[in-house]
Structures are given as structure tokens and as C-alpha cells.
Amino acid sequence: MFLFLRSITNLLETELNNTYVKSLEISGNIARDYESGFFMPPNKQVEYVCQELTKDKKLSEEWAEQFSVQATYSHDPFQEYKYKAHSIFLADINNEVFSNGLYVDNLKKMEKKCFDIL
């Protein structure tokens, strides 16, 4: 199983132009990892993954926000100024940095079309 996962990681790194891939083992070995997929509470899994990702400088520093769609959604409510200053998508589309009337108009058009369909 481990060799299969390692080959998938290698394939992704190669095919995606040396993209950094982080593969995590949740429970210390393959057998326990498999069991954890069924029996470990999801919040405990998420907590562990967050701890591991935080330890990895390649993923815990801001550069990840430039390459990962999911990272653009990072919003620390205790560091609002950082979120607004460095967000490359969400703060803009939500009109949190400056108000863009075009976004509002387009959203209204979309809402109207959705209601017309219903």
C-alpha cells in the first residue's frame, strides 16, 4: 500500500511540474491508518492534519496562497487586516477590500435567473 501511495505522489510531482505533494500517515502505520479512516473521529483527524501541515514550512507560509485555490479561502478572524491585505480572491469577490458595483449587479442578475428557473 505504501509503495502505491508513494508512486502516486511521484506521479503527481512529475506530471504537475514538480508540484509539492504532502502525503500524510494519520496513525503511524498503514494498517492503523486504514482503520483510522473508519474509526477515528473526523475532528481528531483534521486536528492532526492541521498540526502536520503547520510543521511543514512549504505549506504553512504564505507562498501556498499563490498556488492553491483552497488556500485563498484562509481567513483568520483574529488577523483581519492580513486577510484583506493578502487575499487573492475571496476578499475581493466579497467586496471586503473595496466595493465593486459590477459584482453586485452580476449577483443580482444571477439571482434573478435562478428564481426564474425555479
UniProtKB/TrEMBL annotation:
It holds the Pfam family Palm_thioest. It comes from the Eukaryota. Gene3D superfamilies: alpha/beta hydrolase. This is Uncharacterized protein. It comes from Glossina pallidipes. The lineage of its organism: Eukaryota, Metazoa, Ecdysozoa, Arthropoda, Hexapoda.
